[in-house]
Fold each of these.
Amino acid sequence: MSERAVELEVLRYNPETDKEPHFQRYALSCPEEWVVLDVLNKIKESVDPTLSYRWSCHMAVCGSCGMMINGEPKLACKAFLRDYRGTIRVEPLRHFPIERDLVTVIDDFVAKLARVKPYLIPKEPPPEGAEYRQTPAQLKRYKQFTLCINCMLCYAACPEYGLIPKYLGPAAIALGHRWNLDSRDGGREARQEELAATEGAWECSFVGACSEVCPEHVDPAGAIQRVKIESTVDWYRAHLMPWTNEEK
Amino acid sequence: MARSNKPIVWGPFAAGGTLTAFLTPVLVLLTLLAALGHVPEALAYESMRAFASHWLGKLALAGVIGLSLWSAAHRLRITLYDLGVRADALVAALLYAATLACTALAIYDLLKL
Amino acid sequence: MSRAPYERPITSEWIFRHPRYLRYMVREFSCLFIGGWTLLMVWGLHQLSQGPAAWAAFLELLRSPASVVFHLLALAFALYHSTTWFNLTPKALPVPFIAEAHYAGWAALSVVILALAL
């Protein structure tokens, strides 16, 4: 186990004393196989206990430790020191207000997630005394979109979310789409009010950055394009063939 | 939140984007050859006139011109927003109106042929 | 403890933050060349409707150095639009081999058009 010299440049912000965020440097020696999260933990334990950041599982399943590492949205527990040279710049996840140091205010995402109704709205009740049944093929349709860990790296990568704060955003749309694809679910009409709104899928310009940075390979960009196509088909059918519309 | 009417402009954009992806490179190659002095047979006056005189030719030309211009206009609208131009409604109105005007001009010329 | 969340300002420098954003912008800018070339063709169509002399003048215009440069750029941007569009198609339409089918169709169509036109 050999060590290497590590220098982190971390964006600090104390809401009680600072007018603006500022960078602070930490230099220490760490095992070379560590991740950035390990370095932050060592800093907090033995150098500067005031450093604030979110983390939990340390294995890329909880989605807590998202931050900008050298300008790229990454999970700190998945950012290996061996992939970086020189000073490593660590900042809070972009496009979210900074609460304190590396902790961001995530209320906007949480509210948007709730709006897409990311839960089962059953088409019909389960069979008498039994559970819903689903074939492997039916599961495969939506499985990929269940992998989202709500880490919000996609929101940090998406320039449209940065430019248009009202935009629903990649993860919320992908998760709405996940439930629409579930064979047990009958809530698509309700979700379309959010997904097919102007601030829904339509603010996406298919940059594709969200899918590139997603640590779980959910491919939200793909989900959003499919929502756009489905919403377009819906729209033309509803307007050109109004007799097919259900009674509201 | 109400469902958006974006599909009105997005549908033609997607169609135009697909059309230009398949068609534009080879057509640009043809006019590039003409620009370099080797006018392809199809671009001679008689062949072009014949093509544009036929109702199928008119339909094809109108369709390709209209959809190509529309998808370019829509993309430009999005790009201007990305670059910080905030007056989206105004930009959209101007770009789509210009597209329709140019397409109308093309159709007018096609009807003359 | 009092809260004072800090909002970092958004500027256009996001475009230069990573190559993917620059590539996105190049893709988007292809619309200027595809649109521009189409407008040039609209002018050509107009000249066609004015008779053989006007059409000859249009072909003359095509031969200008500015036109040659524009055409080279337009071809490059049109190709970039095509490749990025086909590469993204599987994301929007998750059908097996759809990208390959698009490329094959594109090649076939281009060959047919060249054969008919030249």
Amino acid sequence: MTATTSPRLKTATYGGWRTRLGRAVLPYFLIFPTFALILTFTLWPTVSAAMQSTIRTPSSARMAPRFVGLQNYIDLFTPTTEVGQTFPRVFVGTLVFAGVTVPISMGLSFLLAVMLNRKIRGLGFFRFAFFYPVVIPLIGAGSIFSFIFADNIGLLNTVLRSFGVQTHPWLGDATWAPIAVMMVAIWKQTGFYMILYLAGLQSLPTDVYEAADLDGANSWVKTTRITLPLLSGTTLFVLTTAAANAFQMVDQLYALGEGAPADRSNLMLYFIFQRYNERANTGYVNAITVILLVILLAFTLFNFIVIERKVYYEN
Amino acid sequence: MLLKRLNVLLIVALVLAAFAGLTTTRAQSATEVLFYYPTAVGGPISQVIEGYAAEFNAANPDVKVTAVFAGGYADIYKAVDTALKGGGQGPDVAIFLTTDMYSLIDNDYIIPLDDFIKAMPNGEAYLKDFFPAFLLNSQAFGQTWGIPFQRSTPVLYYNKTLFKENGLDPEKAPANWQELRDFAAKLTTPERWGLLIPSEGFPYWLFQGFAIGNGQNLVGEESNKVYFNTPSTVEALEYFANLSLKDGVMPKGIIKWGDTPADFWSGKAAMIYHTTGSLTNILKNANFEVGVGYLPAGKVGYGAPTGGGNLYILKSSPAEKQAAAWRWIQFLTTPEKQADWTVATGYIAARQAAWQTETLKKLVAEKPQYAVARDQLQYAAKELSTHRGSDVQRLFAVAVHSVLLGEKDAKTALDEAQAAAEALLAEFQN
């Protein structure tokens, strides 16, 4: 005991200032590598995007860029400019995409998790089957669905036709193309959230359910009154992830008609991808990036400030 | 102990690095040329290109061409654009779309090739041997910036068996718009469309066939001007949209580019518009006799755009590599290589001399369909290419789509597209 404490005392006596300085500096020293990465690849690009969103780059490399204030943002919502023709539509479309795919995939994944959280024959197979879309690359999923949605020879229309149901040019129609894109996104991500819910379900205490059984509660009551509230932590996590994902899931568009018709099924991130090659669009794509960031930040903050108060954590 | 192990590792790594350094210096005695190429059609393209590179390297020991398959056209452009904007090094020579030419010039990415051509013993004859239609999208501001390599044009494919069954002459493709609509109506059944003209992505390309045939191309000589809303083009778009909206011989909505060939060979469509680049694939998959015709004529006659990619030399490349790259370009455009390329891919050999080779004479004798696209070139005009090319093309796509969806009439949509395009192009002096 004394052997271990005495050297400590020694340092305290002779090297006190050094230790104190060390203690003050050490944390910064330790987080420095991580922080340097975040600074280089997250914070600086964000600032840089905000700065460049106020610049108009000329089309030719031989002319100098100029400061235009908020003009790029205004152009995005002015219907006579090239970007403004369809950007408002893409902006609303992206919000609708998030507003529809997030609740549906969350609801479905919860349902699947509850169903696959009991002892049934072939449980492993079903869990695998529902999780499988998650491991397929998004662009691969898009390619698969481009065959399913194909107009004349597509799987979906062939099936519909054999039942005598009205077929649609899924990817070529103003109403159905955005729905088709959402369907792929839901199919792709539901399995992932299902696994999260499944993990949550398996860590739930059994005693409350036993108590509920004694009280004669049916499974609806148990699900809504016990399971859902106990899983609110998982739900918050899934919600935040799903919302962020909804603004990032765009790869499938490459295979599903690149936002056709007339940007009806397009999403903001893909809109950026389509335009950033033209030098003159630099200001616009940075402005859209800033808009995307603001939406995401606002949503995340809302989640953590408002919703987290109502969340149950086990410990 | 740990430190010692680390030291050993470090020494091993250093020794290996030194060896690697030695081997690379030795190989550097030959001028290394980096070549990026895309694929846009089916088939074993990279095997073919790598075969060419090996052949060239064997014949030219002082040059070493490394051919890199770099994705689709858009991927290559993005890769090079990102590298050069960031101050990095791109390839020395690459294939980009012909319509990328103005953007490549505006960004200062490529060099004009006139000095190389002048230095050739037969430079003028070399350039003249390319089909004039292919040079329209290769020259600008009085200079030549790209050399035609994988070039195409749209044609009409039709199912001869279905023509026979429906009382049409299988040797005659529809000659004009009237016939196109009438034939398509005869061929349309509840299970089959008479005609499919893809409108997805960049519909300007196939539509240019209508615009040119009706009197006014969408683009002229100038690089800062488009002609979207001339009365002849408004009329053409009305005709085009009515094929689905009124005549019912095409499905409503947007028709996907990639699905169309399969619709054709599976018998779901009797006639389609598509690129000549699909010919090899269609002939392989169709179990009926495939007819190929010119795009049907409008008011003033036949008309079609050209398409595809050119070979460009990058400005960021050092002079000696540029010179070596030029030798590689000459090799790829010899009549023999062009003929071989046509057989392998279905692209139209860009040099007229290539069609005099035994290879292509034999191909045309066996499959006369290959000659149709070549012969249509006499009616071909410039592909829609201006400054800010992809933005301008997109404006036209939005106009076409809103008409196909029945949201706007052709005149309104094209007037809006024209105004927006003029606003984009206002800053350019030509």
